[in-house]
Amino acid sequence: MSIAERYQRVAAEVAEAAMAAGRAPEDVLLVAVSKTVGPEGVAEAIKGGARDFGENRPDQIVLKSAAFPEARWHFIGNIQSRRIPEIVASATLIHSLYQRRHAEKIDRAAAELSKVQDVLIEVNVSGEASKSGVAPAEAAELVRAVAALPHVSVRGLMTMAPAGDAQAAREAFAGLAELAAQIRSQLPADDAAVFTELSMGMSDDWREAVPLGATIVRVGRAIFSESYQE
After folding, report:
1. Could you tell me if 100 and 134 are in contact, meaning their C-beta atoms sit under 8 angstroms apart?
2. Quick one: which H or E segment has residue 188?
3. What is the pLDDT of residues 4-59, one digit of tens each?
4. pTM assigned to the model
5. Does 230 map to a domain?
6. Own/partner pairs for 12-17, CB < 8 Å, 24+ apart?
7. Full domain range(s) for residue 80
8. Number of domains in the chain
9. Which residues pair with 31 in a beta bridge?
10. pLDDT for residue 168 is more than 90
């Protein structure tokens, strides 16, 4: 299978899973995580219909967003403070914000570009030491603080589930959805209206995420790796 064909297959499966969960296919956005391929792989995915791509390194999102400005670029990696201006210049949505100091720098970088930067707050729902993100108990306070910044819009939450354990993944995703609902109920109306996104689910666990409310799934290997096996 080509990258284009694999993208189309995954997109069809995501749409089917959404409908099986009683949701519209367009309610779940498929982000093709292109961090393992070069511009040729991105071009192949675009041929298959991909429009949203995820990158975890600043240099790669800068390079690829410049090469494919027609696509929407998502930054999903660790935020390095000194690279924030480059990330903001390239990213449609930043998924991995969990430090207030980074939010303030994103706000300044966005102001210089006369844009409002959409972000998600990363939450470490599982509590694993190997994962980054704000603790669930501290998420609401961070959301309120970031939402108050004039050039940042908090669009929702993101998490990564424990690997290789479907039940643990379901628990993490259900926990994120419950937390998001709690936070949304506490936000001012204008902030609550745009606080709608749940970025959760990757190649191995997006099927657990969609029935639990994922609005964005981040899929890399199932699209870009010839050797990926479900």
Report:
1. no
2. none
3. 999 999 999 999 999 999 999 999 999 999 999 999 999 999 999 999 999 999 99
4. 0.96
5. no
6. 14/206, 14/210, 14/217, 14/219, 17/206, 17/207, 17/210, 17/211
7. 3-224
8. 1
9. 218
10. yes
